[in-house]
Batch of 2 targets.
Target 1
Amino acid sequence: MSSCCCCKEKQAFVGVRVVVLLGAPGAGKGTVAQYLSDNYNVLHFSTGNLLRNEGKEDTEIGREVSAIIGSGGLVGDDVVNRIVKSNLSKVFATDSLVLLDGYPRSVDQAEYLDSLGDGALKNVIRAVEIDVDHEVAVARISNRRVCSECGATFGPLDDIADCSRCGGALVKRADDEEAVVRRRLQEYVDTTLPVSEYYACRLFKISGESSPEESAREVDDVFRDFGVKKRGDDS
Ligand SMILES: [Zn+2]
């Protein structure tokens, strides 16, 4: 059990149902989310996917979302909150563990999440922050290329001209230009970093700069503290 600055022991297992994944752009949230999906019985809810799915539904909120996304706008807190709430209530009847990725992105949203279920949800939420030096993150993102066909990501060590999965052309996204990355990092520091502070004793940190094997071990340690079993692990 890891300790923290404000209490002797981090709050451990009380039936963790929701894990919030936090980390700066370039921290490696995608990699950790993939590891968790491959090795644990988690439902991975990324805000992007939730919004895209909602936008396909012919409902009032679905039409609203697809109009906002279609015009390149940002979906507001209120709509995102409603979508997260309805998706959580759907899975809460099951005993699945939910991994939230990209939500909450502000303290306001974190407070909203805590208020669900008449405040009962608060006790079963834990946050995992992937810690990364911001210069490492900038270098990582500004050196990556993305497949224009399937969206797979490749780093500077992938010495290839075309996508190794589908043969599509590798491009550098406009979003990944250094100046844009620095702006996104600043946005993260201003808006989302306070979310980590908000979770205080419910926050567990792992390093975003370790090898894949070390990173997997750190994730396993944290999830063991949560009382969550790895798939196929009956011990
Ligand atoms: Zn591809």
Target 2
Amino acid sequence: MSKEFSEARLDVRAFAQAEGQLQGQAPLSAFSRLAQDAAGQDGEVRWQADGELVAQAGGSGHVWLHLQAEAVVPMTCQRCLTTARIPLEVHRSFRFVADEATAEMEDDDSEEDVLALSREFDLLQLIEDELLMELPVVPRHEACPEPVNMQSSDADFVQAGQEKVNPFAVLRGLDVGKKAD
Ligand SMILES: [Zn+2]
């Protein structure tokens, strides 16, 4: 590869033309938005991007970027409330088009992810966006490290169920009252 590419200011078309490859590894703290949602800074992000130019009859070719990213993000397990190291994984391909307007139009119309070409594309921001979308809404250990004491919460649940009044039972009660008159 004769040309050096920068992940923070990537010339996407040149990267595709050169069939470039970039990869990196960074602590979670380097991705501030992702780190903000984490229950600690002890995490890591690894990623790789590959450029591809797909021939197009009568055109300058379709510009593709294939992205793989992996991260481990500490989050609070919603079952046992200790920290769980949540693995995230992204495998995604993006097609780049001339400008934002075309990208928006084509993104709506197709299953593909379409982005606008740039000579200074921030690949790290895209990686972070994609990882953020993978964050679980309810993070949990696959298997919690310590047995969870469910007794108290089970009891609360049963009690709540018993106290809840069934509205139809109330109606039936009124009917019975009327007939008795
Ligand atoms: Zn847990």
